């Protein structure tokens, strides 16, 4: 099946045909590093991590660029509030970003440029736009003239003549048009600056991404992505300045992920429902967060709540439970040597080829789990070569699918030990007592004293301890 991508630029799904066969160039707008990452940031990063992983599973050679905006009004304001340098702020939150995304099993991009590393290229691009009559300088600032780009609004679907100066547009009498946007900003007192033909200043936000993307992917590249909130004005402005500068099409496919609500309300600091990644990870396994973020199609809105996270946690445990069951029957296969394509992997790829539909893809994972459990339940000989061969094919499919989603990266034994440890810490369970009682129960079962064995099980249940007998012995967990 041909991979089809919903292209924001055309407003429809299109067959994905890369510029160079077998290769993908992808640029995704990264964070402005002035504060801790929240769950909305995580959705965008995880969505494009999924897209990267799927391209790689399909044997594409991907050059993935994700930038850091490390100079911006918000960064400068935070630095001034704390009486520190802007670099202190950006370095602090870049380090936090990596810590959060590493926890969420996000792969590093091929190249992760910082805006301040490309000031020379930005000055060059701005100079070219001025020379072409597409931009103009006023009092040390430089503005792009939107009226000089006849296709302005083609990404967002907005018509320039219908727009009004509004919330996200700075009203400035020096502009020829209220929607003209800053390419270069003259420095104010106590602000960082770089020398330029227009005086001391710093780049505008939009020019940064145009320069960094072209520096590594060329004037035209395959995919540009980011959150839905970036469509206008950020991505619209990128297109205008880039295509005016080069005379070429900028990005060929535009991918935008939807928003996250918190308990069916827009996330906002003023509402007190602002959820940072590090706070969420205090309560939930990072892979449960990934599973939640990918449980809906990336373009759909998604609602973060305790209920949705509890459901994601339960589903993650189902996956690990199946993997643990398989490991009790056959030696776990080396995940790096998974090559065969079974029916479930084919179904998974069909879902992902339909605009990276991770919700359908995850549903295929659970179909495979149910299939595996039926196979194991129906087998009278858990060691037969025929069973092992059948299990291995399904297992390979499950591993390839979970690798693409970016979950089940831990060994099942370690996952459940961690779960027990967290529950023990939370509910003050005496591990030594539980282990002794389980041993006493097993001894009673061996002696065929089933009355005593049942009594111990009942006592464990009263302690909120759930036990499960399997081929490799008895495992336990803390209920609730």
Question: Could you walk me through the main structural features you see in this protein, from its secondary elements to its overall organization?
Answer:
With 480 residues, the chain is α/β, with parallel strands linked by helices. It has three domains: 4-132 and 147-166 and 207-262, 3-Layer(aba) Sandwich (Rossmann fold); 305-412, Up-down Bundle (Four Helix Bundle (Hemerythrin (Met), subunit A)); 429-478, no CATH class. The protein is 46% helix and 15% strand. The protein has helices at 39-57, 73-82, 86-103, 119-131, 205-217, 231-246, 277-280, 286-293, 306-327, 343-353, 358-378, 385-405, 412-427, 431-446, 450-462; strands at 4-7, 12-15, 23-28, 61-66, 135-138, 141-144, 181-186, 201-203, 221-227, 251-257, 260-262, 265-266, 302-304, 465-470, 473-478. The strands form five sheets. Strands 4-3-9-10 form a four-stranded parallel beta sheet, with helices on both faces. A four-stranded antiparallel beta sheet has the order 5-6-7-8. Strands 12-11-13 form a three-stranded mixed beta sheet. A hairpin with a 4-residue loop joins strand 1 (4-7) and strand 2. The model is unreliable at 333-338 (pLDDT under 50).
Short description:
This protein is of the alpha/beta class and 480 residues long. 46% of the residues lie in helices and 15% in strands. The strands form 5 sheets. It has a 4-stranded parallel beta sheet, sandwiched between helices.
